[in-house]
Amino acid sequence: MFEIKSKQGKARTGKLRVNNREVETPFFMPVATKGAAKFIDNLKLKEAGSNAIICNGFILSIKPGLKVLEKTGGIHSFINYNGIIFTDSGGFQMYSDKFLEKTTKEGIHFKDPFHGEKLLITPEKDMEIQQTVGSDVAMCLDDMPLYGSSKERIQESILKTIDWAKRCKEYHDGIKKGKNTKAKENNKQLLFGIIQGGIYPDLREFCARAIVSLNFDGYAFGGLAIGEPAEETFSAVSAAIKFVPEDKPRYLMGVGTPELILEAVSMGVDCFDSRYPTMTARNGTLFTNKGQINIDKKDFEFDVSPIDKECDCFTCKNFTRSYIHHLTRLKEPTGHILKTIHNVFWIQNFMKSIRESIKEGKFEEFKKEFLENLKKKT
RNA sequence: GCGGCAGUAGUUUAAUGGAAGAAUACAGGAUUGUGGCUCCUGUGAUGCGGGUUCGAUUCCCGUCUACCGCC
Asked: A287 CA, B37 C1': separation in Å?
C-alpha cells in the first residue's frame, strides 16, 4: 500500500495505494471538510492534480448524516471524487466553540449545532463513523492542545492521545475482522496514528515511540502549524520522525505554505493538508514562483499580466491581475473561484516539481532556488 | 429676489457648551488537520468669517454652498 520509489537525503518519493486508488508522494491534500473545498468543485480539484483530499468524518456524520452517505454509495460516489479520501476524526473541532462541550477520558463531548443534541465521540464511535463514511484513510481521534498550553497540559494530552490511539486501533482491527459492526465493504481502509507533544521534543519522542508501537498504516504529526515559530515546528517533527519507520507514510497535519512544505519534505514527510491555499486565496493571497502576493493591493490595478507567468492554470491562462484585483476589491464570488483555482493548481504543480526534483536527485537545488527567488521578490 | 432647511473624514453618518464616534473607502499586516467572501492595525472630518463664553462643532450674527417652496 505504500512504496518508496526514490530518495535524496531524507526526502523521498513514493506511492500510496488504497482501494485501487493511488497518489504519488509527497502530496498535498486540499481540505474539503464538508465534502467540498470552498469555491472549487471536486472535479476541478482533481484536474488541478489533487489525487487526495481530506474530509471530516465527524462533521459529515452530522450533515448530511451517515444514512445519506450509506444510501448514496459512500463518500466517493456522493461527492463524485475518485481520488484518495482521508477523513479527519473531529479532534480538531475541539477548538470550535460551536461544537465542543468538554473532553473526558471516554472521549470528546460535542454538541450538534444543527440539532442541538449532545454527542459523545469515543475512539470506537469515531472509527465506526469513518468506516461508514467510506474514506480510504481514517485518522485516530486525538487530543490536540493549543499552542502556548502548559507542558503539564500537553503531557496529559499525549497520554489521552495514546490511550485513544490504542482504542482506535483495536476497534478498527475488529471492524476489519467483521467484529464490532456490519461494515464490510470498506475493510481495506487504512488507519493513521497521530503523534502529539506540542513543541517539546521529549514529549514528541515519548508519544512517537508509543504510537509507533501500535503499528499503524501511517503516522501523522498533529498539533503543529498553529501559531508556533517554524523552528519549533521542525524541532518537534525531527524529534518524532526518527522513531517513525521509514517504510510508512508520514503526514504533517495542517501544513500549509510552500516554505514549510519544502522544509518538511527534506525531513522525510510525505503528506500534507491545509486550508491555507484555499482560505488565503479568498482573502487575496496568491502563490507565485516569486513568493506570495496580495492581489488586493493597488500595485495590480493596471497589471495585465497573469497572476504567475509560469503558471498555466485556467485562471492564469485567461485572466489578468488587474481583473482579479478588481474582483477582489468588490468581493465578487467569481473572484474567489478564480483565485482558489489558481492556488490549488499552483500548489499541486509545486508538489509535482518537488517530486520530480527528488527523482532527478535535484531536490536540494530546487529548494535552494525556490527560497532564493522568494528573497528577490518581484 | 424672498422664505425655509441643512452644511461633521473621499463618501454615508453619530454625538455634544468640556478629549468629535462609527460605517465604508484608502493604506499596512495576518491567515496553516476551514461554522467564516475572515480578522487586526493605521491615515483621515466639524464650509468660511466674526460674536457670546473660562471653553463653541454645538448658542448668536454675517457670508458662501446645496436642496425645497414662493414671486
From this structure: 19
The residue whose CA lies nearest the C1' of nucleotide B25 is: A329
- Residue A298 CA to B26 C1' — how many Å? 10
Take residue A279 and report the three cell numbers written for it.
482560505
Per-residue pLDDT of chain A (378 residues; tens, 9 = 90+): 999 999 999 999 999 999 999 999 999 999 999 999 999 999 999 999 999 999 999 999 999 999 999 999 999 999 999 999 999 998 888 888 788 888 899 999 998 888 888 999 999 999 999 999 999 999 999 999 999 999 999 999 999 999 999 999 999 998 877 776 655 556 799 999 999 999 999 999 999 999 999 999 999 999 999 999 999 999 999 999 999 999 999 999 999 899 999 999 999 999 999 999 999 999 999 999 999 999 999 999 999 999 999 999 999 999 999 999 999 999 999 999 999 999 999 999 999 999 999 999 999 999 999 999 887 654
Cβ-based neighbours of A54, under 8 Å, separated by 6 or more:
A29, A30, A31, A32, A85, A86, A87, A88, A273
Task: Calculate the CA A135 to chain-centre distance.
Answer: 14
ipTM: 0.91
Q: Print the domain residue range for A362.
A: 282-376
**What letter would DSSP give residue A65?**
I
| Number of domains within chain A | 2
Q: The CATH number of the domain where A54 resides is what?
A: 3.20.20.105
